[in-house]
Amino acid sequence: MSHPVKGLARFSDATLGAFAFVPSSETLDHLIRYLSTWNGTDKLFTLIEYTLKLVAPVLIARAKIQHRVGVRKEVTSSIATSLTSFASLISDFKMLGRFLGLLPIVQWMITMERSPPPTRVLLIIERLQGWSMLAYYPLEHLFYLRAHDLIPAAVPSLVSLVGPSSKRVQLNPNTLAMWSCRAWAVYVILQFAHLMQDRKLLLMREKNLKKCKGVASEDKEDLRKRWGAFWNEVVVNSTNLPLAIHWSLEKGMFTNNIWPTIFGFINGVATFRSGWKATALHASKTSSASIATAGSLGGE
Questions:
Q1: Which residues, at least 6 apart from 180, have a Cβ–Cβ distance to it below 8 Å?
Q2: Which of 222, 238, 236 lies closest to 294, judged by CA?
Q3: pLDDT of residue 161
Q4: Average pLDDT in the 82-97 region?
Q5: Is 144 helix (H, G, I), strand (E, B) or coil?
């Protein structure tokens, strides 16, 4: 091979093949593995959405202070307006992505009956949670379609399908959103009962391990991870509850929108953290209830 050709090959390797010099990254592999699922993408966007909603008021307050002291002409912040608009787009995108959320719920409920949880109480709780989600998703879908004027404001009633009737059902977006969040609130409240049962099972497992001699380090590590997942779920559900109640009420529970934003941000951090750990290699399995609804809720 002539020298010019060799030089051209080396130049090509150094430029077009520059990624050969980039070391492999377990973190990048983990991130791709996590974001390749809808749940992972949803959790990341939830975290981004509420981060933007937290930053925007700070920028607005800064703009007002700067305007007051005379270092800024405008009293508003164009960046804050852009961040708020982007957060709104993310929320809309997440809701659209949940249009297929009913499928894993149905799959979860079928699997639950074939492989029930360890106690009868947990089975009843998860059955009720499943049915609450069967109400939540269709109501949210109707809200989304109506809010975007994709369906008419009134549709024929069920009575008109079986007999002559001109009665029509009004589809009010606010009412649909409120009732969908009430169905979600039922799930969240039931999840506290689920967590109480989970705690009992973990304490029982911990007690049994203490009785055994020569417990393997893997068993101790597994128990530690399960407790970590449990307390993370406590944080997630504790932030979901005020959000579910707030959006379930006609006038809401908070007069200042910063509180839903704060709860949403904490929820976003906790859910992203749990999902990140769940997709780590050799990660222990999470509870069936958490898997079924992970990433599908917790943000309007």
A1: 135, 136, 137, 139, 140, 143
A2: 236
A3: 61
A4: 96
A5: helix
Question: Among positive and negative, which fits the CA dihedral 95, 97, 99, 104?
Answer: negative
Token representation of residue 286: 């999470």
Q: Are 169 and 156 spatial neighbours (Cβ–Cβ below 8 Å)? A: yes
Q: What is the pLDDT of residues 111-165, one digit of tens each?
A: 999 999 999 999 999 999 999 999 999 999 999 999 999 999 888 776 666 666 6
Enumerate long-range contacts of 254-258, CB under 8 Å, 24 or more apart: 258/57
Contact (CB, 8 A) for 203 and 223 = no
142, 151 in Cβ contact below 8 A? Answer: yes
Which tokens go with 233?
Answer: 């779920």
Dig out the tokens for 178 from the structure: 């409120």
pTM comes to: 0.85
Q: Is 181 exposed, middle or buried (0-12, 13-18, 19+ CB in 10 A)?
A: buried
3-class DSSP assignment, residue 117: coil
Owner of token pair 């369906």:
151
- pLDDT at residue 212 is higher than 50: yes
Q: Which of 28, 197, 220, 49 is nearest to 124 (CA)?
A: 197
pLDDT in tens, 256-274: 999 999 999 999 999 999 9
d(CA 255, CA 50): 18
In 3D space, the residue among 128, 52, 140 whose CA is nearest the CA of residue 101 turns out to be 140
d(CA 127, CA 221): 31
Task: Provide the greatest CA pair distance for the chain.
Answer: 89
